[in-house]
Protein: Molybdopterin oxidoreductase family protein
Organism: Prauserella salsuginis
Amino acid sequence: MPAPAGRTATPDGDGTRTDTHCPYCALQCGMTLTPAADVAPREFPANRGGLCQKGWTSASLLDSPARLTTPLVRTGGELRPASWDTALDVIAARLTELQAAHGNDAVAVFGGGGLTNEKAYLLGKFARVALGTSQIDYNGRFCMSSAAAAGLRAFGVDRGLPFPMTDLAGADVIVLVGSNPAETMPPFLQHLQGAAAAGGLVVIDPRRTPTAEQANVHLAPAPGTDLALALGVLHATVAEGLLDEAYVAERTAGFDAMWRTVARYWPEHVERITGVSAADQRALSRRLAGARSAFVLTARGAEQHATGVDTVSAWINLALAHGLPGRAGSGYGCLTGQGNGQGGREHGQKADQLPGYRKLDDPAAREHVAGVWGIAPESLPAPGRSAFELLDALGQPEGPKAMLVFGSNVVVSAPRSQRVAERLAALDFLVTADLVLSETAAMADVVLPVTQWAEEDGTMTNLEGRVLLRRKAIDPPDGVRSDLDVLAGLAERFGQPAGRFPVDAEEIFTELRAASAGGVADYSGVTYDRLRAGEALHWPVPAVDHPGTPRLFLEAFAHADGRARFVAVDHTGPAEPPDAEFPLQATTGRLLQHYQSGAQTRAVPELAEAAAEACIEVHPDTAARAGLGVGDVATVESRRGAVTGRVRCVASMRPDVVFVPFHFPGGQRANLITNPALDPTSRMPEFKVCAARLVPADAEPSATQPEAVTQQKPVTQQKPVTQQASVELQKSVTQQASGTQQASGTQQKSVEQRETGGAS
């Protein structure tokens, strides 16, 4: 998009500007920032000089009235300003007390996929060394875990895109499964234009999203049937003699076992399951077979299911059958969502991992990392609970009594969010480190104000495995500290020796390099100097003179025999199919203007104005049957709860589907209704489909709606539903600390006006 009014694309008078990257999605668009916090796009392979609406407004949060600038400690039931020493002393004292009474695992740590590599690394080290707890996981478990598990078992390595995204420009066929980049990462659409021009852009999604509108072919399977569709297309590939037999024989294993399942899924049978015609299935198979260059890309729509790993495996099987992975100019990839969704899962904040993508239960991995940390390998705890189980165990007799949350708003974003709020309320002690008073922070006993993207150095790893340097451009407000400072200050209070927890990002990255050396995600050859020089370094980079590995698998896959694995998978359908009581299928996703739980973007006036509340998208006939019209307030009910929003009638919607975005708090939380059924391998919840019904908002509450949360802490800070109310609350606590408010930034052109500039 072009520069909006009120934001210049020129540097300040002294010519100073800082090359950096957008704080939002895994595209990590290149941008520059002036000392006056003026954003301008820059030429970078990911975005080619474009930014989306969120990128253009990203600097607005730096001086937002919603910004926290002083620690808050709950006193007398209310959050009140406190000094940093007081806040850290309170945290250390309470955690020490709880661990003394209940053991090390009484304290849990929860991270985020938006943390820099340095923060994710130090957070995992802090949990296992300073706290000695096994109870650590992060919100990426809800985003990427299914694709990661499927990639590991197929290829032996998990990297979102095992090729540079610029390779996509030369493709004549690209199949997007459960992905809507027109809203989630608009500049990415530039990489799809070649396939679209060739007539080969295929989008598979139950909704006719803005991405599907730009596709040459849109297939709309029923929610939860993507796996069956992949099996049907694969059946057609084999039955019509389109299998790349030479590739399968030379580079893969497991085809025969896989085929024994796929043989039962002829296209006509799959048509009855998915609603996608047998002719369209065969046409997709022929399209892939005839392509000179082709890619299959999956995203959250395929992954966020109780069978998410198998669903992704089914699409990888199809890609292997056509000989795509490990071939220059073709392949399979996964579109990572969060800003550091790739790097965030590589360096130790997951329950079962150590830095370098090492496994925590591997004795050699434990010995290597312990040596870097200067501790005994046996002192490292065992793997702990994954994210959903961890949140569900909070405050339980055998679960953690306290939790520290860094960079995640679990009250809105986690599955079964009503239950999560209950579990947080049951804790003896809750600490959050955040930019704004999110819905989770509002429940905390201590809230720590931390720096934002433009106020600190650090590395991120984007969706193609490229390590990027996000540079400090401006100083943070007085009273705000980095997460690295927080961890170092707490580690010191837990008796850790000086220097074990550095605060300088480059020093931490040097240690991360050593800890990752020899691992799957080997960063040992990446240095800040190389990144400052603009080198494109895709991991693994095993030596400082190594050029990096932009394309994996060209010679061999990462299994011992060098072969990729076909995996036999079967279709079972959604964990909760529709029935007479709940005849619809609810699915969730993102809106163009917002990101993740919306805690940040709802504080940007321009974005909040454009999408101020939750919508409920339904087919006009579905709305009419429920007695609803456009703009009416409706309720979507499931067996777990109910979510409200305004009706938006969309003629292209399937009549059996209702869509709810997940960016909004309070009674508009989509995760009040989603199904927490977990994938047995990845522990990914089934966000994308559950049985539901649609009723007017003033209808009698159903017997299946849960009772209100019984809070064990005052709810004064938990009431806000609208972003405006949340900002007002944040203003009040900030005013207690400083007595003044920063003026909001320069007003910008409306989102609607920007859309005329195109998706890029």
